[in-house]
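I hope you will forgive my troubling you with a question about protein structure. I should value your view on which stretches of the chain appear to form regular backbone elements. Here, with my thanks, is the record as I have it:
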Amino acid sequence: MIYLIRRPAVAAALSALAIVAASHGAKAQQFPTKQVTLVGGYPAGAASDTLARAISDTLQQQWGQPVVVDNRPGSSGNLAATYVARAPNDGHTILVATDAMLTSNSFLFKAIAFDPAKDFAPVLNAAKNILVLAVHPDQPIKTVADYVAAAKKNPGKIAFGSSGVGSPHQLAGELLAQKAGIKLQHIPYKGGGATINDLAGGHIPSAFLSLSAARGLHEAGKIRIIAVAEPARFSELPDIPTIAETVPGVEMGSFVALVAPAGTPQPVIEKISQAAAKILKDPAVTKKLAGAGLVVTAEPPAALGKAIKDGLAIRGELIKAAGIQPE
């Protein structure tokens, strides 16, 4: 049976769509109409906080509205994520999220009050947080090959610290162990600060750390970075190799991104994304963030959406293989 659609009905539908599109476009032109809040899930000084503060002042100048950074630490970023997921979807509340908040946490907690794939609209994959493998300078280990050899000689006795159970730092260690066929002892800490303090103090022989926290102590000779967990060498430290140069397949990306509550009009998302990306690509801002161990990526919403989807799949499998149980 063939159904005929009357032209007046088609015209009415098209007219309604045009009105909606015009309404969203008008909202984007008017945005922001009040204070914009960049919500972070970690304390001041964290990578996400550093990035938020790098863009907030310039956004405020461009938009003529206050742009404030509101850190709501707790539950590995879940408190901040829950707050933003329930906020009005008008673009005035943005989550400065990490890969852990948008991927790993789904498998590390028995219950969280948000769905990272459904409750947020991707805005910008802003930057990569470089992860590194470091050892105490008294250790004879100078390379990844030395590290793997020591672990094979002493199965389960080479310990590495991380910023917590299920953190990307732990997952980097678990991935190295899997790919290299070695057994390592994981020592979880409550945050990167405690990890790096124990490494510098010689209480643990090695750790996976964020470069933003490790670089200063590396340059001071208090710890020794032997490799980065990236697919390519970090331009700021070109003499330090990647883990994958020795053990192929060991890459553990950690990112900082901007997401909005689901349902935020796409024109508003595009306006925020483009404005933030332009600021991040400014050479002065890029250099400042590189000094903190962040590599600007400034990828659009679609790329961030793919990163979240891929991260949920890859980290879910890795967490399960590592035997990590949700809290």
In short: The radius of gyration is 22 Å.
